[in-house]
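Retro notes
What went well: the complex prediction finally ran end to end.
Inputs used:
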Amino acid sequence: MAMSENRTEIASLGEFGLIEHLTRNIELQNASTIVGVGDDAAVIDHFGKQTVVSTDLLLEGIHFDLMYTPLKHLGYKSIVVNLSDIYAMNATPTQVTLSLGISNRFSLEALDEFYEGVYAACDKYGVDLVGGDTASSMRGFVISVTAIGEVVPGKFVRRSTARKGDLICCTGDLGASYIGLIILEREKKIFLESPQVKADLEGEKYVIGRLLKPEARKDQIESFEQAGVVPTAMMDISDGLSSEILHICHDSNLGCVIYEEKIPIAEATRLAAFKFELDPTACALSGGEDYELLFTIAQEDYDKLLLNEQVSVIGHMTEAEKGKKIITKGGNSFDITAQGWNAFGAR
Amino acid sequence: MAMSENRTEIASLGEFGLIEHLTRNIELQNASTIVGVGDDAAVIDHFGKQTVVSTDLLLEGIHFDLMYTPLKHLGYKSIVVNLSDIYAMNATPTQVTLSLGISNRFSLEALDEFYEGVYAACDKYGVDLVGGDTASSMRGFVISVTAIGEVVPGKFVRRSTARKGDLICCTGDLGASYIGLIILEREKKIFLESPQVKADLEGEKYVIGRLLKPEARKDQIESFEQAGVVPTAMMDISDGLSSEILHICHDSNLGCVIYEEKIPIAEATRLAAFKFELDPTACALSGGEDYELLFTIAQEDYDKLLLNEQVSVIGHMTEAEKGKKIITKGGNSFDITAQGWNAFGAR
């Protein structure tokens, strides 16, 4: 954990002093933000729009490890993963609230680093931090973020509205974040056993970056709108492609076929996977934390996304009775399971 | 901690099975709830209203002790304390999100008990649970609630808008919850030392009830509206009367005078306080967790609240230069501090 040299005990500020300190540089960006931090609640104006709300809880030791997660990145990521849920509704995030449980091993300087990342994300995505809560934690850093967004009435996109024959698409590339995690976990183990060994992670920059500083696909939501495409169903990929596609199938009461060879995996991800003896496809299917968009479109919309290099068509929706299948590069068909695929269930 | 006899391991359901189980009985109550639990985000329609958002984080060992907090009460209270913040803006809560960090010592039955309380509160206050997140916690139960409400544009009431000469009022009675806490902490200590001693808390029912199952003052917000009174400033009393009045003074750039004899304290609270050798006034000033409303009104509105037995006028706002004062029953004037009052600062 990167700590600055100065150390100001948080207790020396008191809770309200702390909130004032942490929120002193907020500049509100949305006209809809009527009241921000500093009252019982924030007030948001949403005339003529529908409000979208999403919330996430991040716990030290479960969702992040401070040994290899710089606090600034953690602050950035805490916001981004929530915004990703709002974009996945085809909506625009406008405000966030942030609550923290902080143990006394944190200095004010450490907390400032965390907030630097929070504000960087708010800035980049044009959202206002409008409220929150800070509490002492007996043990472990606790982060709770709620994001609020808006959408033109009726234009939100759910998981349950895919139709038979729709094309299954995803943005960007998958699997990198999981490999980044595996690499950092291994490096941590090596460091704990032999602190003198210096890690060389130059070649793994891409996959580690995808883990530590993910981005939400605001750009893709905007490009869909410009292209005049409204996905028929959509969600973000936080738990791995296979888990998410099963959600869309379940909620839409349909089956699917996806093709292994169509799953977008970056060259850097493949190289890192091979170096660490991992199967890149398995990483894409069950790794998670990609924060790309998984969505379905009507076949007649295919042409509208042809020029978008960030979108890959990976399969199509079928009748529920046909099951949820992945066709491997070798031409075999397997059942998709939340863990990737089920070789034993192959027919 | 009250545990049912059956024990179903939470891990046996999987995360999504768990969410489905916990949310299977939700009935949406607000027409504005377009999409509830089960997608990336909830969708809320707020045409012609302003949206109000508040968030709280509750951590085991800091905010609650499972040794003497029944889980159903804890679920109820987790919701209510957030709704209280929304009412304190003169707004109406409509939706909540709930995120939980759960350690594996919790059974599904224990979690069901918690949710029973959550749903009881949602039912009583007419709000919809629209989303959330569950995560494993390494240690300790973590509860994060975000409440969303609506208010007629411009009708929200802030902390910063009290005016010189305004009357300072509060609802209900104060100090009970803190005494309830002291009693339960003492009983816990006795139990840990001599488990065979059986606690007799019959006489302390009121103060313990105020701690374990607080209510938000929805009724008072409604009665203000009926009476045609809009408070000039308002907040809820979660940290103790003195801390909250200092907030209103600071944010409104004013001073105040409050009168010890006017502070409403229930007879049951006084009796319990004396029994445990506590000063009831000190408990009201610095105890906290009352979840009553502290508000200011124009003097000409005084008559409109005369018939409201739940409202006490406890003082008035002054120029900032006059300081923040409490006049004791003995007629002495002391500076109010966040901890109650500062006898050393008396002039």
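What we learned: The mean pLDDT of chain A is 89.
What to try next: split runs per interface for comparison.
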